[in-house]
Task: inverse folding
């Protein structure tokens, strides 16, 4: 091995803290006290014999009694009138969309159980992220309302309608205003329904406002080009990407779409063509995008503006005032970047994550100078995913305060939770006569209003979406409404006196508007799930560079305001995002891609900075915002975090979302502030150490690989010289022996290839795996005990680099000035299906055995829980069921109720307590795919079998297939020079090949 | 004794002659009856049954009710006979107004005679069956299940023989004692009461003596242990095995009638078995495909069959308007074949890919008036079959791809399900 780079999962591993060393000794953090029982004192006391006899007697009696129970009678209840398309046991797929992402909904016997990306929408917007994957659980949420409510009590829909119409008519007669407050509404049919409603009640206006807003971009584009839109970014056209605090692979605008574009220039196929983009990230907190960057430079939020000015000056040769003068590292990086950007005009893009109009205007100027418009930025087919206007909501509040508004409806909007100034909203709402929410639960806002008309879940609804120019998707129901709910658009139509139901309305809208001139029919669209009308050609845009002086001044002011106290960066976490899916247990338990924290938000602080504040692991810190809002948050020592900054995730701390999500973390929205007409998520705060300690449920050092060399990394330059650089083949270096006889593999050999360069670490695969394989949610306490059940995890490894040197020894860490320069590698880790599996040989009951298709089988009914296999697994991928999570009141918030259990996959058994489990390589899907081929009497072909993780991955980082088929994609991928096998040296012959991480860094 | 054997000989001779004659006659008739059965099933069974009314009258006794010439004419062309005003024909037609007798001009005279022979043979069979049935009592499902099992039959037979022998011995003892008393009486000798008392004491003494015989006691205890042990062993092995499980179903649906008599393809109702992992119980609308028309009312004096009425009730079906109502209640069948949750079984793999007959696992389902669990559904049972059964690879291109397996197949070697991984845990447990 050439590299001696040191990788570590967490600071405790790096520093080898006593607690870490103790806990990583055994496979299970809490050993069973066998020694205590069996030691001399335990045996020589008088009680064991008596106790033994008691226990024996009780056991015998209990077993006898249990055996006396008669075999339960199972009922089989067939359909009375079976729908023609349903065959019990065979899934049906319906094309639909989740937030404009075209998906296929897998249903079994009429209940949706999984979302998959729509394969025919490839290249449009079809990926599924963690929240899309988990959204199917929201359908079966027991915290939802069972019917409409009026003034806190249940009411019938008819009575509610009468009340609403009375209020509307009164407002109309008095000439008062009616407002519909909604988060971005890009459904053409819904907008048409609101237009129909406005016909009846002409004072109605739609106010779109998003909890996490992008109105800075919209306004900047209005100022620069006269188009108030969010552009559509094309990272696939970019050879060089500079991101200033934009988490564009994660939560910024359209993460999945960006991931697909981004990866197309970086995955193994692109590398084989000798092509790889370069990505430079400047940011304060460590974001998912930052972890994937080739070069990541930590900057404070207050330095974002000056950095953009410096970038602009360097590219255009102008001299705007206020360019970056601090942060030497950023300046050095900037010089290198500028050189490249200037050579890559038309193939570069600069993005900024700020919501400040001036910053976005300057970013526009830079992109104009780089000729990005028309190639990497598309203004003519803009994105409609976020249209929220922060000023419109301020106007709404002012109008309400004046008493102009009589009726207000809230659609998918929860301002009493997500608006920074909750009191202002409360006061304004108090002056509105009739307020109604379409929320599906009594959330923070709905519970304060007059009435709730619960909306359908998207899986119960008809509808559509228009996520970007020319691209329309369909939303179709896949289940009958579970509760007595009604679709919001349908309610609006009813109140407007429209007789047609919403299905007919949507259908008519499509037939009369969207499908005119197209050869497609409504039925065609229901089958494909989307309608793509092609792209508008790029127009030319002029930019007024002269106006930039004022912009630079605004930026300077903004930056100056931030450069005091501790700078706070509010961000969305990958799992919880803006908090709308706050009651989703799968999302709460998904470890954050960077921090690996579950079930909480926290104050992420650089370890060196924390040290200077007297904070350590498990400390609590009180964060006091500019507006006096204070919360106490647990501290997370985040390597890579800019010194002097703290990052806090919004979306947590909900109080009225439901059993699973109530009071998880703290609400960080109130730290945000409204400035220059947009919501600002960068602010300042004072930090003070709070008393007490709090242990975050963090999975980063669980299942540690004990410092073994499992990551292989190289640079693009080295890769070009030798594609196999640093892949580290061990087989050549020593002779290996087989303890086992070779056995025949007459059929298939299922293997996987994982491209570390494509994996962004987003975690969609983990949630997909959870849902596909009925993996239980265990909750915060059990995660703290290292008992999370996830079959696959994404190991995140840090490595420190400072001025070109890799730091390899523990004691060198102390000499570092800061911990800002860390690079990150994500490695998906699941059962490696070893040919010489160490787990198999130690199982005393042969519960885990090898198959002729190269899989490591796990027979749960045979397992009796010795856990030897987990102890012997070098990859630490086996999970033990400590409880009957499906039938234990301690896990009531998640899946321990009959209704939520409807999300379970009927083809996979739910495991019982005391049983070991692990990745089965979705054997149910393998068997189903094989059966399909057998029934059709044809050879198995590529694509017959997809795995839950692989199909959830937008980046195609997980490639699955038959290694015995030389033409399969996986066979070809595994012939790649970059392929290495983790812990190949111990000759367990794993079935999963990894491809080296390649970074396109600047070579010294 | 001599008397008895004489009487016996006297009886046996004519009976054996009769039996031989019967055999000869019946073997001659058998050929006709067999042909008749085929013709009957092809042409008549859609409206007639031998026993009991169907759409047309019961055919048992038809040979007695009408003379052969009339029957030949009637079956050949009934409408013509009605038109010609034959009184018997008119009467029949009036009795069954719903369905007129169809003409069968294609049937030869010999063929019609065969049908009549078949009906006669069925009558004889039933008569013989009734006689046998009277002796054994009405068999329940479990007994029916056992009847097919040769070894069970042998065991029951042996037990019966032993029991019979025991009874014979007792009876003989009794006879001997009576005879002895008769002899004693004839000699005017009254048996002494002390003697019987003494005999009783002797029995007790004998028992005590036997109890002191250690070998005997050991043997008895050993027998007891063996008996209890084997019984316990068998019971424990069969915990959770519900072979022969025959619960009462909400509707007395007869597979014998539907699959046996009416020869409805399994696939018609259990289409799922050919497509999916579930064989699936048909939905009530599948029943209604036929039972909208077939009400079996002729069996219930013109009333709707109470069992079919249950389907109507479930669907809230109104026979007059022929529409389904809103108050539908699903039919809750009792599941007979219960696999544990941790075992995955897929019908289509077995039925379509392997081409396994339904009867292989479900037994003679077409003869079951009430379905019972035929197979034990134990893992041993699965594994045994997977070890024996050859892969049904003929004409299935999927198996061509399994290169190594394909090589073997080309050489004509036997490839069983087990050799393609059919015994691996993960094939059924995941």
Result:
């Amino acid at each position: 091995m050439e590299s001696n780079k040191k990788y570590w999962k967490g600071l405790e591993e790096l520093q080898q803290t006593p607690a870490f060393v103790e806990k990583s000794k055994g496979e299970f953090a809490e050993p069973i006290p066998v020694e205590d029982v069996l030691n001399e004192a335990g045996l020589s006391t008088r009680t064991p014999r008596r106790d033994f006899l008691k226990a024996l007697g009780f056991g015998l009696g209990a077993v006898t009694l249990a055996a006396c129970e008669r075999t339960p009678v199972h009922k089989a209840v067939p359909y009375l009138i079976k729908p023609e398309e349903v065959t019990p046991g065979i899934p049906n797929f319906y094309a639909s969309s989740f937030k404009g992402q075209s998906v296929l909904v897998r249903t079994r016997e009429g209940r949706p159980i999984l979302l998959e990306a729509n394969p025919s929408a490839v290249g449009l917007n079809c990926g599924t992220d963690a929240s899309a994957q988990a959204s199917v659980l929201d359908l079966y949420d027991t915290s939802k309302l069972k019917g409409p409510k009026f003034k806190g009590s249940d009411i019938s829909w008819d009575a509610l309608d009468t009340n609403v119409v009375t209020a509307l008519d009164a407002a109309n007669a008095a000439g008062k205003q009616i407002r519909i407050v909604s988060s971005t509404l890009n459904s053409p049919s819904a907008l048409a329904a609101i237009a129909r409603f406005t016909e009846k009640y002409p004072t109605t206006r739609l106010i779109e406002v998003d909890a996490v807003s992008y109105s800075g971009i919209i306004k900047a584009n209005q100022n620069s080009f006269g188009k108030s839109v969010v552009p559509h970014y094309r990272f696939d056209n970019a050879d060089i990407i500079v991101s200033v605090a934009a988490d564009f692979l994660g939560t910024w605008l359209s993460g999945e779409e960006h991931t697909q574009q981004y990866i197309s220039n970086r995955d193994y196929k692109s590398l084989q063509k000798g092509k790889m983009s370069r990505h430079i990230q400047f940011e304060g907190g460590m974001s998912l995008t930052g972890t994937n960057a080739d070069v990541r430079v930590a900057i404070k939020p207050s330095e974002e503006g000056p950095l953009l000015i410096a970038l602009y000056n360097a590219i255009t040769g102008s001299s705007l005032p206020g360019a970056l003068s601090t942060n030497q590292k950023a300046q050095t990086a900037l010089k290198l970047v500028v050189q490249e950007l200037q050579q890559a005009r038309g193939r570069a893009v600069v993005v900024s994550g700020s919501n400040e109009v001036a910053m976005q205007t300057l970013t526009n100027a830079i992109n104009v100078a780089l000729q990005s418009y028309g190639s990497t930025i598309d203004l003519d087919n803009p994105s409609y995913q976020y249209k929220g206007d922060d000023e419109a909501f301020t106007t709404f509040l002012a109008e309400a305060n004046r008493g102009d508004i009589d009726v207000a409806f809230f659609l998918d909007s929860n301002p009493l939770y997500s608006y920074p100034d909750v009191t202002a909203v409360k006061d304004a709402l108090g002056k509105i006569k009739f307020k109604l929410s379409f929320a599906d639960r009594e959330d923070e806002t709905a519970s304060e209003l007059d009435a709730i008309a619960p909306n359908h879940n998207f899986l119960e609804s008809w509808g559509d979406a228009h996520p970007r120019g020319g691209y329309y998707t369909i939303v179709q129901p896949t289940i009958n409404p579970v509760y007595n709910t009604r679709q919001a658009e349908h309610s609006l139509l009813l109140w407007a006196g429209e007789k047609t139901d919403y299905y007919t309305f949507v259908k008519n809208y499509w037939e009369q508007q969207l499908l005119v001139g197209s050869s497609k029919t409504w039925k065609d669209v229901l089958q494909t799930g989307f309608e793509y009308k092609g792209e508008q050609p790029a127009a030319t845009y002029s930019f007024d560079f002269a106006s930039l002086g004022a912009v630079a001044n605004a930026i300077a002011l903004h930056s100056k305001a931030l450069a005091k106290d501790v700078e706070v960066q509010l961000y969305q976490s990958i799992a919880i995002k803006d908090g709308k899916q706050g009651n989703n247990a799968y999302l709460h338990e998904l470890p954050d891609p960077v921090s690996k924290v579950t079930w909480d938000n926290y104050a992420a602080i650089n370890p060196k900075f924390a040290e200077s504040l007297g904070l350590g692991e498990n400390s609590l810190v009180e964060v006091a915002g500019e507006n006096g809002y204070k919360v106490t948050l647990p501290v997370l020592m985040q390597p890579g975090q800019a010194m002097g900054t703290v990052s806090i995730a919004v979306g947590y701390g909900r109080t009225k979302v439901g059993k699973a999500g109530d009071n998880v973390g703290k609400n960080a929205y109130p730290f945000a502030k409204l400035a220059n007409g947009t919501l600002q998520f960068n602010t300042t705060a004072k930090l003070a150490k709070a008393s007490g300690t709090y242990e975050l449920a963090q999975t980063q050092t669980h299942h540690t690989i004990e410092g073994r060399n499992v990551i292989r990394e190289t640079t693009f330059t080295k890769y070009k010289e030798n594609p196999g650089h640093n892949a580290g083949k061990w087989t050549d270096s020593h002779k290996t022996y087989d303890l086992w006889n070779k056995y025949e593999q007459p059929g298939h050999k299922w293997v996987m290839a994982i491209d570390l360069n494509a994996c962004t670490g987003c975690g969609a695969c983990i949630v997909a795996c959870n849902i596909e394989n009925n993996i239980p949610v265990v909750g915060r306490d059990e995660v703290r005990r290292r008992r999370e059940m996830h079959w696959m995890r994404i190991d995140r490894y840090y490595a420190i680099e400072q001025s070109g040197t890799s730091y390899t020894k523990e004691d060198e860490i102390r000499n570092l000035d800061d911990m800002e320069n860390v690079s990150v590698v994500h490695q998906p880790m699941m059962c490696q299906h070893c040919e010489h599996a160490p787990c198999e040989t130690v199982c005393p009951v042969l519960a885990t055995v090898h198959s002729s298709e190269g899989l490591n089988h796990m027979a749960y009914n045979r397992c009796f829980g010795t856990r030897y296999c987990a102890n012997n697994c070098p990859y630490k991928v086996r999970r033990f069921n400590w409880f009957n999570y499906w039938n234990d009141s301690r896990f009531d918030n998640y899946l321990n109720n009959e209704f939520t259990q409807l999300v379970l996959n009927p083809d996979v058994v739910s495991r019982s307590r005391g049983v070991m489990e692990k990745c089965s390589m979705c054997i149910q899907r393998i068997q189903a795919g094989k059966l399909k081929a057998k029934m059709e009497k044809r050879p198995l072909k590529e694509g017959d079998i997809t795995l839950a993780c692989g199909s959830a991955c937008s980046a195609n980082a997980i490639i699955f297939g038959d290694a015995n088929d030389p033409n399969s994609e996986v066979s070809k991928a595994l012939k790649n020079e970059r392929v290495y096998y983790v812990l190949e040296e111990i000759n367990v012959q794993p079935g999963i090949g990894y491809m080296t991480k390649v970074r396109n860094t600047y070579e010294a | 004794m001599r008397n008895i054997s004489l009487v016996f000989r006297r009886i046996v001779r004519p009976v054996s002659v009769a039996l031989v004659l019967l055999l000869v006659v019946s073997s001659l008739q058998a050929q006709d009856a067999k042909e008749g059965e085929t013709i009957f099933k092809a042409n008549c069974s859609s409206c007639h049954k031998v026993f009991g009314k169907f759409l047309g009258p019961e055919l048992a006794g038809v040979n007695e009710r009408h003379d052969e010439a009339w029957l030949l004419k009637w079956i050949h062309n009934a409408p013509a006979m009605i038109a010609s005003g034959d009184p018997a024909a008119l009467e029949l037609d009036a009795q069954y107004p719903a369905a007129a007798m169809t003409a069968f001009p294609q049937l030869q005279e010999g063929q019609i005679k065969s049908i009549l022979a078949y009906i006669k043979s069925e009558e004889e069979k039933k008569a013989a069956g009734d006689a046998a049935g009277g002796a054994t009592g009405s068999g329940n499902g479990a007994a029916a299940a056992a009847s097919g099992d040769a070894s069970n039959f042998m065991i029951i037979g042996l037990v019966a023989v032993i029991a019979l022998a025991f009874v014979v011995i007792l009876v003989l003892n009794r006879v001997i004692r009576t005879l002895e008393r008769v002899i004693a009486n004839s000699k005017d000798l009254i048996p002494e009461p002390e003697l019987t008392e003494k005999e009783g004491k002797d029995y007790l003494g004998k028992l005590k003596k036997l109890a002191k015989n250690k070998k005997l006691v050991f043997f008895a205890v050993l027998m007891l242990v063996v008996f209890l042990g084997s019984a316990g062993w068998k019971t424990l092995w069969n915990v959770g095995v519900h072979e022969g499980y025959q619960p009462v179903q909400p509707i007395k649906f007869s597979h014998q009638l539907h699959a046996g008599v009416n020869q409805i393809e399994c696939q018609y109702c259990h289409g799922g078995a050919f497509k999916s992992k579930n064989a699936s119980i048909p939905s009530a609308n599948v029943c209604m495909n036929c039972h909208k028309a077939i009400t079996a009312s002729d069996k219930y004096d013109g009333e709707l069959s109470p069992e079919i009425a249950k389907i109507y009730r479930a669907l809230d079906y109104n026979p007059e308007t022929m529409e389904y109502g809103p108050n539908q209640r699903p039919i809750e069948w009792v599941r007979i074949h219960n696999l544990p949750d941790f075992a995955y079984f897929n019908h289509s793999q077995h039925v379509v890919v392997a081409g396994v007959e339904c009867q292989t696992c479900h037994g003679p389902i077409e003869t079951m008036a009430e379905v019972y669990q035929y197979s034990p559904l134990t893992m041993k049972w699965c594994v045994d079959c997977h070890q024996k059964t050859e892969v049904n690879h003929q004409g299935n291109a999927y198996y061509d791809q399994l290169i190594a397996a394909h090589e073997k197949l080309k050489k004509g070697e036997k490839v069983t399900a087990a050799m393609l991984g059919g015994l691996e845990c993960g094939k059924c447990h995941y």
